Amino acid sequence: MRGETTETTEAAADVAGATMRESSAAPLLAVRGLSMRYPTGGPGPGGGALTVLRDVSLAVAAGEFAALVGPSGCGKSTLLALIAGLEAPAAGSIALHGDTEARRLGRVGYMPQRDLLLPWRTALGNAAAGLEARGVARAEARSRARALFADFGLAGFEDAYPAALSGGMRQRVAFARTALVSGELLLLDEPFGALDALTRAGLQEWLLEVWARLGAACVLVTHDVEEALLLADRVYVLSARPGTVRLERRVPLPRPRRLELLARPEIAALKAELLAALVAEQAGGARRRAAATDEGGAL
Fold this sequence. Notes:
There is one protein chain. It contains 9 helices and 9 strands. It is α/β, with parallel strands linked by helices. It has a domain of 195 residues: Rossmann fold. Helix 5 crosses helix 6. The longest helix has 34 residues. The radius of gyration is 20 Å and the shape is globular. The two termini are 17 Å apart.
């Protein structure tokens, strides 16, 4: 276990160093040495703690699309919540344009796994909800939301309630709500994970088009390696819990992207490398958990 810990720390340092050396200018988003722990209420003076993230470092340039993949429970969603300012890390820093004191809560657009549409609001009202929460007048917020509906494939559904919308359309409304308050950075937590394959493929291509028009940087959490390769400029592989960056790879595809580009030999090889890393992490995480359980039982 000591060897695995050393390997994890060295890998994180190598990834962080490579990322930070790519540009002398401060990236839009820089995460350095980030760790996160939650109290468990267990025995002992401190009550016990669960380490979810350990020494995570990554960077996202302005206008860049980054994807995070990793085993279930490795802390991907927690990392997005930390970047969004919804939680404070146990250690490490998060900087916007090099400023670790920059306010992130309310400045970064964050779309959680569920669409969280309000059932009593129309599609237009839901899309405008984020702006209204920021104090924008209702009429102005809805006017700005309405302007997005054609580009988001929602024209004609402004007055529809969530119960009358398909899963794909609900995700579009949720994304419109996020985009209206996103500023320079969008955080997307498995936005298409609950959709069928055909709907998901259509929305992936739609997202590429909308993202290109928005011009914002994006960090996407996904379990789908092909989705990461289609959408992202850079893919980070997180280890099993406690999550740390095990692998970072650039996606050598031009933009605009098309689904058929995934058939290129170099992308097939990159997919195989990413999948191998994920399988290894899944197996390694299971071994570490079993070892920890054995040690706990021996105590």
